Amino acid sequence: MKETRSVGTYTSLVLAVTSVTTLMVVVGLTMDLFADHALGTQAQIAWSAHLQQVDAALARNDVRAAESAWREAHAAALKSRHWEGPVAVGDAHRRLGDVGGFRQAARAKARQSYLIALFRARGEGSVEGVLRVAERFAELGDRKVVEQCIRVARTVAAQEKDPLAQQSVRVFTERWEARALEADPQNLTP
Question: How confident is the model over 86-117, as pLDDT tens digits?
Fold first, then answer.
């Protein structure tokens, strides 16, 4: 009888320790997940410091140093897992290409960064992010991608059920359509 009770106590103790350990692992993973997505984390702001170095190097007309800092900014933006970094890195690469004389190649790299930002913004449910990316593609003259961004923004806004987000999409769409009509008054392009 005594042996049965000690086996039962031992089993209860093992289950309790296992349960507490499992709970600690789940809590740790959850905290890590949210910490990586919190604003102000090291990964989130590291790209910004590198972009300041890019701008400082460009101000000195040091294209080589600017390219090096841009590569660091790009890596940090990818690590951040948010949409803001890739947008800022794409913008910086366009500036770098203008100064360095490789405008077309820089626009292609910026386009890649903007596409990453689009997918991240959609994943985060950020209408602001999707519309910011749409603005960048409008600057690049990529009408088809802008229209795709508008569709994504509408979907995200509808999923969020946020009237302000839906209003932002409407305002952006109206502005885009007016700009497109201005560029092609007879609406001859598809």
Answer: 999 999 999 999 999 999 999 999 999 999 99
Q: What is the pLDDT of residues 59-83, one digit of tens each?
A: 999 999 999 999 999 999 999 889 9
Main-chain phi, psi angles of 74, to 5 degrees: -60, -45
Pick the CATH number of 41-183 from 1.25.40, 3.40.720, 1.10.3470, 3.40.50: 1.25.40
Gap between the Cα atoms of 173 and 177, Å rounded: 6
Tell me the backbone φ, ψ of residue 43, rounded to 5 degrees.
-65, -35
For residue 11, is pLDDT > 70? no
Per the CB < 8 A criterion, the answer to whether 105 and 93 are in contact is: no
CA of 75: how far to CAs of 43, 47, 114, in Å? 10, 8, 14
User: Residue ranges per domain, the chain?
Assistant: 1-37, 41-183
Alpha helices in 38-162 (DSSP H): 42-59, 63-80, 84-100, 103-124, 127-140, 143-160
The whole-angstrom distance between residue 31's C-alpha and the CA centroid of its chain comes to 20
